[in-house]
């Protein structure tokens, strides 16, 4: 009899950037009134905040090793980007986000290159336009009216600028049972030198 739990044969994967802790803390402080006013929203954990560059979807776990070397080389060839968290908004009154400002052209180029490299590994994924944002919360259908005012509460928020440190390959537990969505780094690679 095998006592080890069965490992899933697939993993839900995306490539992302993560703000540094001090930038996340700054935004969390600005969100404190919204946390108190809208406690029934499904708030993302601060440690899970990220900027998605390419959502790859559900992949066989055997595909992950092919991504590591190409993403490592890409990160090593790129200087950090200077970004900042700014304002707030929503998608379809269901998803609350904070916007991104700074070197957006460089962010789009990095996302394009990530997507090209993933395709060269023979991995197909849903093509979605990059809309740089950091997801903060989701609303159940019955709570959609709370998202626009929560977004409005961030209208005047501008965080300090920060530099990207690493390119992250992230896995999530979506579709793996009840409970909150959790993300974990599969791997992460340092960007090259100074910008």
Largest beta sheet, briefly? 5 strands, antiparallel
* Distance separating the two termini: 55 Å
Q: H/E series, N to C?
A: EHEEHEEHEHEEE
Strand order of the largest sheet: 2-6-5-4-7
Q: Indicate the overall shape.
A: globular
As residue ranges, the low-confidence spans are none
Query: Can you give the mean pLDDT?
Result: 89
Radius of gyration: 17 Å
Count of helical regions = 4
Helix amount:
25-40%
Please report which band the strand proportion falls in: under 5%, 5-15%, 15-25%, 25-35%, 35-45% or over 45%. 25-35%
Structural class: alpha+beta
Number of strands: 9
Description:
The chain has a five-stranded antiparallel beta sheet. It has a four-stranded antiparallel beta sheet with strand order 3-1-8-9, covered by helices on one side. Helices cover about 25% and strands about 30% of the residues. A hairpin with a 3-residue loop joins strand 4 and strand 5. The mean pLDDT is about 90. Helix 2 packs antiparallel against helix 3. The protein is of the alpha+beta class. It catalyses: a 3'-end 2',3'-cyclophospho-ribonucleotide-RNA + H2O = a 3'-end 2'-phospho-ribonucleotide-RNA + H(+). Keywords: Hydrolase.
């Amino acid at each position: 009899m095998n006592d080890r739990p069965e490992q899933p044969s697939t993993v839900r994967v995306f490539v992302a950037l993560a703000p540094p802790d001090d930038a996340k803390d700054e935004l969390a402080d600005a969100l404190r009134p919204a946390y108190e006013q809208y406690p029934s929203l499904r708030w993302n954990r601060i440690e899970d905040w990220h900027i998605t560059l390419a959502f790859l979807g559900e992949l066989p776990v055997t595909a992950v090793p092919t991504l590591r070397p190409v993403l490592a080389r890409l990160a090593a060839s790129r200087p950090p980007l200077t970004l900042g968290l700014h304002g707030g908004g929503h998608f379809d009154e269901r998803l609350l986000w904070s916007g991104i400002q700074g070197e957006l052209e460089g962010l789009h180029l990095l996302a394009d290159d990530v997507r090209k490299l993933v395709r060269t590994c023979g991995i197909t994924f849903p093509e979605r336009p990059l809309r740089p944002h950091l997801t903060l919360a989701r609303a159940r259908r019955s709570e959609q009216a709370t998202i626009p005012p929560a977004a409005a509460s961030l209208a005047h928020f501008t965080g300090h600028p920060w530099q990207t440190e690493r390119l992250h390959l992230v896995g999530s537990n979506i579709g793996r049972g009840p409970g909150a969505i959790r993300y974990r780094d599969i791997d992460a690679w340092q960007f090259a030198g100074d910008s």
